[in-house]
Amino acid sequence: MNTTRITALNYTTREYFKQIYKHRHIIRSLVRRDLKIKYSQSVLGWTWAFIQPLTALIIYSIFFRYVFDFQFDKYPYALYVLSGILPWHMFSQNLHQSSGVLLSEQELIRKIAFPKFILLLAKSFVSLIELGFGLVLLLTYLAIQSGITWNILLLPCIVLINLLISMIIPIWISQLSVKKRDLLHLVPYLVNFGIWLTPIFYTIENTPKLLSTIIYANPMTGITMTYRWVLFGDPFPLEALISPTLCIGVLLLPGIVLFKNFDKKIVDHI
Amino acid sequence: MLEVNHLSKSYNRSEVLNNISFKLLSGDIVGILGENGSGKSTLLKIISGIVAPTAGDVRYVGQLSSLLEIGSGIQPDLTGEENYYLKGELLGLSRPDLKNRIGELNQFTELAPWMNHPVKHYSDGMYMRLAFGIALTLEADIYLFDEILAVGDTKFQQKCFETIINLSQKGKIIVLVSHNITELERYCNRFIWLKKGEVREQSDSPQVLDRYLRDQLMGSDPNKILPWQHASLAFSQLSITNEQGEQRLTNTNEIWFAAEFQILKPLSVFNVTMHIQDHSGLPIFSISTSTSAGWIHEKKPQNVKLSTFVESGFLNAGTYTVSFYIQIESRVFQLRNLFFLGVSQSESDTQSHLFSGKIRTNFQWKQL
């Protein structure tokens, strides 16, 4: 039988990942719970996972195409929008769900011992599954429209990077908002502004210089453009990938380390 | 085996636990007692790994299952069965494993027809049965229960305790936190008394419970309440002795009570009633002046000395409290838990095993 030892010491990084692995079943049941509560308590059930991106697609496409008269002719505009909405949806879902997860799951934190990073992981898995539904929709459309190329094998890589980027802000906000909640109030603004600072509906070539610099600084720009490189053979967005790379190196990894060191103290503050 | 070594915990520099150490062996049913704020819950939370200690450590072998509050982690939107799986999985059990054991849960909770309904439609009693059932059905080596035995009907409580004893016979460690001293006394083989974050006493003998109660009820000193002063009356003294005037009381002694009052103003009604309660506050019997022969309840200013006694062999060994209700005119003043009464087992008493309960009578059977 295994011996457990509980001390005041912080986890080492190795220990922390070991603990996360050991408690991986929690991720599974949290994801199952979230999906069940979200989808199995509605008449349409899983159909909602498709309806959400579809309605967004239809509304935005109609607006840009017919109201703003936006010109786009490389491939169907709907595909262009969809390939932007899906990664963005994962990003905003994580932002919404994970940023306050240490507070929204405080009942669990007070009752069960586990590494709290699992809560963030569980939320990202939910968003990952939803992205999966969206991608099925997109790939079906693409297959009918123009066929799928071998590039699709790169899709899992970009999905993973998309996921990592989506976790960065929640990792910081979740731990910083345990004591004071100010940062949580920023989340809706980040989502509302962010969607316009990402080339989801427009193309980056048509934007003024100053604005395009800001758009390039947004890591989701690189992500969106990489999806389009993989899916539609758009040019490889080398410039746009600088920001996501920096974000992962400078914000994600230190964020995880800080989170790990804060882990045992979280329960004392909620 | 569960070992706690020099455990301390402080929040914002205020100390909640200070240098706690103890060791539990398999088969132990341990009662942790202490007043509110003594650190019991924090201790259990540290043992379950939910709260990190400030210093010291906890070691244990095997799996730990804790039910720190009724309904912990139960999701109202999910069904009883889904909740069972969720909780089981959170504790690291596999789904097939849980599936095998669901019959056991249903047998324990008697909730089988309800298992497919959302928990939010459960009554409080069903909710509690589910929570407790889940905690007990999930196989572990150490079980922690915090203040959960006070709820539920008697039948279900009985069932819980039977299960707890079964678990202990299988070599599991059970840690109970409860304010119900009677229950602790009945089921635990070890007691740890926490006071202000420190282990005040730990022992295998239930006498800890008596000392804990005395401390609880009296604030250690009965003279804090006496003398009791009122505009028209002072209650200056109460003494409790055996028939020889000694402090030591056993169940074969007479127990003598002597109370002294000073009446300061003329009173049209003055009555004194003494209530004897057991340690859980359950009334055992009362002795009142208003039903005493020859008592005149109109009093001029004077000193009044009252005395009464309980026959030998009437009160069984145990811990009791003495309360006085004093009636002055139409008002009744309640002086609760004035005195702590410890009656010990007399060595000359060989028949105590024949008598259960708090009092012993000599009612007889007659063969017809």
TrEMBL record, chain A:
Membrane topology: Multi-pass membrane protein
Keyword vocabulary terms for this entry: Cell inner membrane, Cell membrane, Membrane, Transmembrane, Transmembrane helix, Transport
Pfam families: ABC2_membrane
Domain ABC transmembrane type-2: 44-262
Location of the protein in the cell: Cell inner membrane; Cell membrane
Domain of life where this protein originates: Bacteria
UniProt-listed InterPro entries: ABC2_TM, ABC2_TM_bact-type
Ranges that cross the membrane: 43-63, 117-144, 150-174, 186-204, 241-259
Alphabetized PANTHER family for the sequence: INNER MEMBRANE TRANSPORT PERMEASE, TRANSPORT PERMEASE PROTEIN
Family label: Belongs to the ABC-2 integral membrane protein family.
Name of the protein described by the UniProt record: Transport permease protein
Organism field: Marinoscillum luteum
Automatic annotation (TrEMBL), chain B:
Protein species of origin: Marinoscillum luteum
Record has Transport as a keyword: yes
SUPFAM superfamilies: P-loop containing nucleoside triphosphate hydrolases
Keywords: ATP-binding, Nucleotide-binding, Transport
Entries under SMART domains matching the protein: AAA
InterPro entries assigned to the protein according to its UniProt record, in alphabetical order: AAA+_ATPase, ABC_transporter-like_ATP-bd, ABC_transpr_TagH-like, Bact_Polysacc_Export_ATP-bd, P-loop_NTPase
Descriptive protein name: Polysaccharide ABC transporter ATP-binding protein
Signal peptide positions on this chain: none
Family assignment from sequence similarity: Belongs to the ABC transporter superfamily.
Domain ABC transporter: 2-221
Gene3D superfamilies cross-referenced by the UniProt entry: P-loop containing nucleotide triphosphate hydrolases (3.40.50.300)
GO molecular-function term, one example from the UniProt record: ATP binding
